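Q: Could you predict the 3D structure of Adenylosuccinate synthetase?
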Amino acid sequence: MVTTVNSINTEINGELSRSCPSKKTKMENKVTVVLGAQWGDEGKGKVVDLLAVDSDIVCRCQGGNNAGHTVVVDGKEFDFHLLPSGIINQKCTSVIGNGVVIHLPGLFEELKKNELKGMKGCEGRLVISDRAHLVFDIHQQVDGLQEAEKGKNSLGTTKKGIGPAYSAKATRNGIRIGDLLGDFSLFEDKYRTLVASYKRMFPALELNIDSELSKYRAYADLVRPMVKDTVSYLHREIGSGRKVLVEGANAAMLDIDFGTYPYVTSSNCSIGGVLTGLGLPPNVIGNVLGVVKAYTTRVGDGPFPTELHDETGQLLQERGHEVGVTTRRVRRCGWLDLVVVRYTAMVNGYTSLCLTKLDILDTLKEIKVGVAYKLNGKKIDYFPSSMVELSNVEVEYISLPGWACSIEHVRELDKLPAEARAYVKAIEDFLQVPVKYIGVGQGRESIISVD
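A: Sure. Here are the predicted structure tokens for Adenylosuccinate synthetase:
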């Protein structure tokens, strides 16, 4: 018998199909993704907490402790920065994926704070990727120095060291969790090399290297039981039929590629970051839920076409308690900008939407919605990549009547005032994406599920 390349391929393919005949079917559409559709602070944490009830695993795929998610349970407020918001659900395993950059002191402080508030049973339910990169205190110092160097052109970063950590990753002198858990002498060499490179750039940097290394020797023992190869783990769990929920940190307009660059974060917080940040193939993604605040906010600098500098903007800020969870900075507020949401829907492919904070509009007699941009008097059919162009666009609005009553206790769509339903329908009609959930209050129970 003559063996040919074709016969070998046929034999191998046949053996593969016999050993895992239904793998493709088992893996497909098992992952639900929750992404912010604006500049962040849309209330993703609350949505993830809601969906975690029907999930087995909740994952973070990118970002660091520059993100802030608030979840209110039984009147208690839990703040999450590195931990997936679904960790509050004791039946869920929480995964911090390879695309996340982790500040270990911040992680353990976050665990302690939330446990003191009543969060229970985290031991054994938190899994951390060995491929995730570490954020060190020196990254945070460098972040602050880089911002100071920019002067009036500063970006308004959180100074949490996220940008420098991702930069180190890209220039291949970053340090991963797996390095910390391996031969500590090699970790020490890498750490000293990293510090030396930053000191050459910023001679004024002050750091007690020996003290930092001593701290990280202790952190290695603390974090070791939580660490595993999350790529194999997730594929195995999804293949066995477990439901996975992915929580994107930050939001699409802060994406390093598609956001309002350079006023962005340093990771891909759009759908692509889910795949690269967890090691998942596209065919496992099922529903992509875009979280949209009923108006628009952003923290930090950068163009904001629908921003309000009047009493209405102040009213939205006060009624919405618009203060950053991570930075405590007051958020800038403006009308809902559907040009922004349509653009992020193109990038992310939302299958449905969650409209949050609709109740904040309760007292307004008239509500405006941005539906088009004009540049130099002409309507444009694209979202500008140039911040100069975006700063100069003229927004075209539609006006809708307000409902002028409280909707905080409404739990069914048909019990909403007609004007509120019209507002939701206007959003659906413009975006051609259905609204599946409507947030009308702070607590996890304050959500209307739309059939």
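Q: Anything worth pointing out?
A: The chain has 15 helices and 20 strands.
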